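Hey, can you fold this one?
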Amino acid sequence: MISRKNASISKFIIHKVGNKFNDTKNAFSEKPVDFDEASYDLMLPFLLRPFGTIVQSYRFNHHANISLNEINSYATQLFSNEDDFVEVSKHIVTHLYEQSTSANIKTGDVLVVLFDGIEYLDMTTNAIGIFKIESKINFFQTYLENQSYDVLVQKGISSKKVDKGCLILNQTDAEGHVICSVDNNNYDAQYWINQFLNIKYADDANSHTQQHLELCKEFSTEILKTSYGAQEHNTFLAKTIDYLKENEFVNVERFKEEIFEEEKQIRQFEDYRKEFQGEQNLVLRNQFDVSERVVNKEKKKIKTDIKLDTNIQIKLDIDAPDASAEYLERGYDEEKKMHFYKVFFNAED
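Sure. Predicted structure:
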């Protein structure tokens, strides 16, 4: 979704955020970082790399009025006047600090960044990045002393991935600013997404497709696998992916008719869908356009292995949803008192 090939950093500042619950304080910088060439060349891809594969985007949320969302207000101010960068970046850290109402919330470095040349879909725009670095790694530092080299251990930021980050694009639609977010330490996801940023998924095909797939994955694990076994669980997921690949538009009623053969399973899916909406605080669409990008991305994450306690695994092809029903049979051997699978084939590779 985001391309960084023409991106650059125009302003960058580092602050430290404490934890209000533990009474650790914030520490603020008074001026932006002046990069040397090596640091800049490492920092730019480090910050933007996580957003290159993101499909879904967010929009700001607020129970009363979007203009009252704190980060939305700070972003609007920065886009209007970059001269306020240092002071606004401090306000952002203070707002983050106010959300640390649990001992589990980690302290860390907060990077506030202004980017130019961010490519989003077919547009080029500037953006605001907010990153929280929570985890430091140990590394060895060698040094020369008394004509001999010695070594000591120091802590630093890993250049492999950011812990938490968001990118607020200076690009809006009917729902407001386009926002991308990543969280690799999602033990406290509510703190970053709901409390600090206060954002929700965009009302678009990406979001609707993602939510439908999450529903189907949860249903297949909690209902089908438990009641009917791993074969039924995997067959359902393969049929779901196949349906989404073959249709540009989903009508949930037609989806149920094509996927399920038993009326009982249709009722189970309907009941689970209602529960899922309530638990996730969602309103699932009965009709929506399919996002091919979401389907392709989620397809790679779905595992269709049947793992048996006899150290044997059966791997089903998610692109062949009918193969399991046609060439795989499940039964029970009375003599051995064990379940079994019978696999039909013409030739081995």
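The radius of gyration is 25 Å. Let me know if you want another pass with a different chain boundary.
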